[in-house]
Each structure stands twice: as C-alpha cells, then as structure tokens.
Amino acid sequence: MIASPLYWYSVSATVKTYLDDWAGWLRVPGLDFRARMAGRRLWGVTAQADEGPGAAAPLVGTLRSTAGYMGMEWRGVLVGTGSKPGDVDRDERALRAAKTFFTDAAAVPAATADVRY
Fold first, then answer.
1. How many Cβ atoms from other residues are within 10 Å of residue 23's Cβ?
2. What is the DSSP letter of 11?
3. Are 71 and 39 in contact, with CB atoms under 8 Å apart?
4. Cβ-proximal residues to 49 (8 Å cutoff; 6+ apart), any chain
5. Can you point out the beta strands (E) in 11-89?
6. For residues 60 and 67, is the Cβ–Cβ distance under 8 A?
7. Are 25 and 31 in contact (CB under 8 A)?
8. Among 20, 26, 60, 110, whose CB has the most other CB atoms within 10 angstroms?
C-alpha cells in the first residue's frame, strides 16, 4: 500500500523518491527485486482538495503502471477529499469505501474504475 497526498496531480516527492529507489533495487545483483514483488498486491490511498473525480487520474496512472511493470496485482486507489486536518474524516463516500477497500471483495476487475471514493 502506498499512501500519498495528491500533489500537483501525482504522488508526493517523497513517494516519487521511494519509487525511484525501486528502480535502483532492480539493478542490485542477487536481490531479484522484481521477482520478489511480482504477485504482491498494490493499493494506493490519497487525499485531494479537488472534488472532481479526474484530479487523481495521473496519480492513479503512476501507481497502476508501477504495479504492471513490477508484475503486481493492481487493487486501485482510495480517494478522500479534503485539504485541512479532519476534512477526510467527514468525507462520507471515502469512509464507506474504506470499509471494504483492503478486502478481497474490493478487487478491481479490469472493466471497472481504479478509484474508490
């Protein structure tokens, strides 16, 4: 699971640096990082100030592509709306979606949206 606020329509600089580290680990002899990550599940969790459903699309694309490249099972992104502490706690859609987001029943079939509010 990767959690990041939505910053300029993508993951935060800290998360981007972490994903860049993955690229380095791919080149470490004997580590077999891709093989070790293959088959694992990847979820994303974010908070955004914009209430529009498309604002998180670039972040979703980054994480979905990362999962695909690494051979991981993509499970989607949970999005909460808010820009101040406590705002997401009042986002009823996100709170409802969070109840089942990490369960097997919340798997993301290829034909459905990657984002849950």
1. 10
2. -
3. yes
4. 6, 81, 82, 83
5. 41-48, 73-81
6. no
7. yes
8. 60
Strand 73-81 relative to strand 115-116: parallel, antiparallel, unpaired? parallel
| Domains along the chain with CATH numbers | 2-116 (3.40.50.360)
Orientation angle between helical segments 13-26 and 57-70, nearest 10 degrees: 20
Name the residue with tokens 């409802």. Answer: 96
Cα–Cα dist 82/49, whole Å: 5
Amino acid symbol at 28:
V
pLDDT mean values, one per 10 residues, the chain (117 residues): 95 97 97 98 96 89 97 96 94 94 66 66
Give the pair of three-digit tokens for residue 1: 């699971």
Structure tokens at 5: 């606020």
Q: Which pLDDT does position 108 carry in this prediction?
A: 56
